[in-house]
Write a structure and sequence with these properties.
This protein is of the alpha+beta class. The strands form 2 sheets. The protein has a 7-stranded mixed barrel. Strand 7 and strand 8 form a beta hairpin.
Length: 164
């Protein structure tokens, strides 16, 4: 029997200037140890310096909404928001690695040189977050992974990500 995938790729790097907004994909980003992504609104945000979400989770949401005949819950409210990388305000959208199997304290390695330590799994939304209000649903509270940046360096789209 095959176990959870331990390696994958970063298929999108996403940043925003303000919290609570959909992030915009970029080709590369500079990670700063102990801080996060340079220029991102969440830089220096305690232990949630970088957020990760699997593209497989986004695909599952698309499938869920397509059964309703829409692209996102927002479309049910008359808004047109496509479920693409960055829409859930994640910094890294991954493919292939099973992030849902991670535990707090585990270490990920990006591009064989930059380490991230899992600091939080999911997040608590006391009131519906800004992304929920924009998209109509948010999967980060259940499927989002948050990490602390242990090593500085530049990360590019397409680079590897692996559980150590």
């Amino acid at each position: 029997m095959k176990g959870p995938a331990r390696t994958g790729k970063i298929i999108s790097i996403n940043v925003s200037k303000r919290k609570g907004t959909i992030k915009t994909p970029v080709e590369s980003a500079e990670l700063v140890a102990g801080q996060g992504i340079k220029g991102d609104a969440h830089m220096g945000f305690q232990h949630r310096q970088v957020s990760l979400l699997m593209s497989e989770s986004i695909a599952a949401q698309k499938k869920k909404f397509s059964k309703l005949g829409v692209e996102s819950c927002a479309e049910l409210k008359g808004k047109k928001i496509e479920l693409n990388p960055g829409v859930y305000a994640e910094n890294f959208t991954t493919k292939g690695i099973d992030l849902l199997q991670l535990k707090i304290g585990e270490v990920l390695e990006v591009a064989g040189r930059i380490r991230l330590r899992v600091s939080q799994i999911g997040k608590e939304c006391h009131t519906r977050c800004a992304i929920y209000k924009l998209v109509g649903d948010c999967i980060m509270p259940v499927q989002g992974i948050f990490c602390e940046v242990l090593d500085s360096g530049v990360v590019k789209v397409g680079e590897s990500i692996a559980r150590l």
